[in-house]
Amino acid sequence: MDFIGAYSYDNVMYLLQGLGVSIAVAAAAIVLSFILACLLAIIRYARIPVLSQIVAVCVETIRNLPLLLIIFFVYFALPEVGIKMSVFTSAIVALTIFEAAMISEIVRAGLLSIDKGQIEAARSSGLSYTQTLRFITLPQALRRMVPPIVGQFISLIKDTSLTVIISLPELMHSAKVVSGQNFNYVIPIYLLAALFYFIINFTLSSVAKRIEVRV
């Protein structure tokens, strides 16, 4: 093992560039998937005729598919029907679709956990269904969702490594390139990549615990 050679300035900077791509893809997917998940969960929670059933089928289908298959489908299959995207965009779209399905179930469970008595009291006080959802149900549900949602976001960050299969220049792709220069770099480089993942996810987990205590 050659730690000194593996941890040269150029190699470390190259890994950090890959880490930057991983964070950018994860950040975009986190925001988009959470917004989409809330929409899907609310549709199912409200039991909108036909639409809620369609959403339920889509969510359950995606949740039972491997993420790698979705990445392949978005990047390789969609261009066959005229939908062409860059590697970066394809990664975000695939992660967003998968995570939205997963998170929507967390959001829906949070909404269903709110006592029906509070909802009935809000409705009897003159609030509309939308106002009740906005001011009573959703705020309380979101507080209860913090731990599982953050856990899902941590999984999302780790799942960005799967995009190496479509050659997205993220952290694992960069580690693969650097370790390929010299067999003695393999262990040092992957240890450093593991350290980067640990720092990011541990930090996110610590922040989530503080938020959970405050709420």
TrEMBL record:
SUPFAM superfamilies (UniProt xref): MetI-like (SSF161098)
Name listed for the protein in its UniProt record: Amino acid ABC transporter permease
CDD domains from the UniProt entry: TM_PBP2
PANTHER family in UniProt: INNER MEMBRANE AMINO-ACID ABC TRANSPORTER PERMEASE PROTEIN YHDY (PTHR30614:SF41), MEMBRANE COMPONENT OF AMINO ACID ABC TRANSPORTER (PTHR30614)
Chief location category: membrane
Record keywords: Amino-acid transport, Cell membrane, Membrane, Transmembrane, Transmembrane helix, Transport
Compartments (UniProt record): Cell membrane
Domain ABC transmembrane type-1: 19-208
InterPro entries with a match to the protein in the record: AA_ABC_transptr_permease_3TM, ArtM/GltK/GlnP/TcyL/YhdX-like, MetI-like, MetI-like_sf
Naturally occurring in which organism (per UniProt): Paenibacillus agilis
Alphabetized Pfam families for the sequence: BPD_transp_1
GO CC annotation, single: ATP-binding cassette (ABC) transporter complex
Molecular function terms, GO-annotated: transmembrane transporter activity
TM region(s), chain numbering: 12-42, 54-77, 83-103, 149-169, 189-208
BP terms from Gene Ontology: amino acid transport
Membrane topology, record value: Multi-pass membrane protein
Family note: Belongs to the binding-protein-dependent transport system permease family.
